[in-house]
Amino acid sequence: MSETPLRSGAAPELVEAGFAVEVGDAPLLHEGLNLADLAHVLVLSEQGVCPRPAARALCGQLLAIHACPAEEFPYEPAYGESYNARERYVAEQLGAMAGWLHAGRPRREAVRIALRLRLRRDVVELVTACADLVAALADQGERHAETPFADQTYLQQAQPSTFGHYLLSFAYPVARDARRLADALTWVNASPGGAGCVNGSRLVADRQRLADLLGFEGVIRHTRDAMWQVDGLLDLVSSAASLVTTESTLAEDLEIYASQEFDFVELADHHTRGSILMPQKRNPYALSVLRGHAGILIGKTTELFSLMKSPSARSDNLIFAYGEVPRALQAARRATRLLGGVIADLTVNAARLRAALEAGFSQATDLAEHIMEHAGVDYRSAYLVAGEAVQRAAATGLAGVDLSAELIDEVARQQLGHPVGLSDAQLDRLLDPAAVVASRTGAGGAAPAEVGRMAGECRELAAGLRSEVGQRNRQFDAAEQELLATAQALAATSDATAPLDPPGRPDRTERSSPEDTTPGTAG
User: Fold this and answer.
1) Which of 1, 83, 274, 368 has its CA at a distance of 20 to 30 angstroms from the CA of residue 238?
2) Is 429 exposed, middle or buried (0-12, 13-18, 19+ CB in 10 A)?
3) DSSP β-ladder status, 218-219 and 190-191
4) Cβ distance 353 to 148 under 8 Å?
5) pLDDT tens across 64-85, in order?
6) Which long-range contacts (CB under 8 A, 24 or more apart) does 397-405 make?
7) Mapped to the 3 state alphabet, what secondary structure does 403-436 carry?
8) Buried b / exposed e across 239-256, counting CB within 10 Å, b at 16+?
9) pLDDT tens profile 136-156
């Protein structure tokens, strides 16, 4: 097999199936590629590798590209993937000086850097959306800390609770996934720069300088690992899928609770969609969208795990990850923001919740426990007495609040051989759903004061997450501004080649033919 540079252009089928896929993701990486190229040129200049005139000219041209929106830059699959398209454009403007961009760096290094620069912003935005959702759940949870609710398992009444306690059960897992994503910034914000091909680069000896210019916290130690690690990408997408799966669970509940049959909650008009045919229908469209995003993210997670199962040092996995990972985080952010809006604007039908609670038998567990304590029998025996009493009451159209001492004693004589001896006055207090809820004062319980305490805790979690990633984002801004200022200072020196206007997509007749390029030769 020849190891010389390619002499012909790529086959049309390769352009369509390969380069076009990568170029399609160019808008996601455009800004990061600009910054990666500028930092590389600055380091080469500082270390005496790239001649100062070439460095000045390159900085000027790269700054012009940076000013050009990605959709206006001439990324053309016929000339290779994104890196090759950029290389070709710079060569058209600067000639041989463009070749200094290759010194000590394969194309994969530039794209790996660009991906991390993109992902760190995506993670910050997603964690911020999570914090907003946690805060919305905390606000509604506190607002409904005393709103009665028969909490359910398997869509059947379980125990008396409050709607606020129910909502907060979703705030904590959202906060945990946000925490995982915030922690993942440590992996994202490490620099693969200066890794060379696999064994490092003698031309970019100061890897930390390159990391500092780009605002990375440090370098990835092992140079081969720096080029090919994928575990952090899997962590990111898995955490995003976990997050949106939790959101989908709440969305499915709310879709049921918003139905006419339940009528527990009502979505704001702007989160619904009317039926075109049936005038009476008001579809909870936002909840369907949320569930769909969860399915897509679960699929993307499986897709990425499948892609990453390859021999080491191969490109097939990361070629697709460049677009799929940012898109997964964007989808998670959109879903999270949507659910935050749904929760903030949700109307809770407290009267309907109370009526449903009082019509059922969610007090049965408390009844069994009191029979156990009052009659001095084991819980299983007390459970059988309470269960039989509930069945008899339900058969005659009674509810939990209607259970009488006479009925309990009648069942107890049959089950235990003796009456329990509870009075109707005792049962009235025992079977009051509000009294049941008020008794749950332990950590995490449904007592209103405890729900209020947890709501405050969730707000603190949200504020802490928002502050943490906000600080990170300001650091990213500062590093990028300093990098651009340094490059501008170099480009502005007197012997710099003046940069052209920001590039636009030229007329195709003015472009060289595909046969004149050699995509794939940049390493």
Assistant:
1) 83
2) exposed
3) parallel
4) yes
5) 999 999 999 999 898 888 888 8
6) 399/358, 399/359, 399/360, 399/361, 400/358, 400/360, 400/361, 400/362, 400/363, 400/364, 400/431, 401/358, 401/363, 401/431, 401/432, 401/433, 403/367, 403/427, 403/431
7) CCHHHHHHHHHHHCCCCCCCCHHHHHHHCCHHHH
8) bbbbbbbbbbbbbebbbe
9) 999 999 999 999 999 999 989
List, in sequence order, every residue forming a beta bridge with 151; answer none if it has no partner.
Answer: 159
User: For position 480, what pLDDT does the model report?
Assistant: 97
Segment among 80-84, 349-353, 409-413 with least mean pLDDT:
80-84
For range 465-485, the mean pLDDT? 97
Helix (H) or strand (E) holding 274: strand 273-274
Instruction: Give SS3 for 52.
Output: helix
Give residue for tokens 């606020």.
164
List, in sequence order, the alpha helices (H) in 345-398. Answer: 350-358, 364-375, 379-395
Query: CA angle, corner 183, sides to 294 and 198, nearest 5?
Result: 95
Identify the residue whose tokens are 């040129």: 41
Averaged over 389-397, what is the pLDDT? 93
Confidence of residue 315 (pLDDT cuts 50, 70, 90): confident
Share of the chain above pLDDT 70, in %: 93
Most distant CA atoms of the chain, gap in Å: 105
Taking the C-alpha atoms of residue 405 and residue 407, their distance in angstroms, rounded to an integer, is 5
Record the tokens describing residue 200, joined without a space.
Answer: 């490092």
Q: How far apart are CA 47 and CA 103, in angstroms?
A: 12
Find, among 23, 228, 254, 10, the residue nearest to 106 by Cα: 228
pLDDT band per the 50, 70, 90 thresholds, residue 205: confident
Tell me the mean pLDDT in the region 356-376. Answer: 92
User: Which residue type, as a one-letter code, is found at position 420?
Assistant: V
Amino acid at 328: A
Reduced to 3 states (helix: H, G, I; strand: E, B; else coil), residue 162 is strand
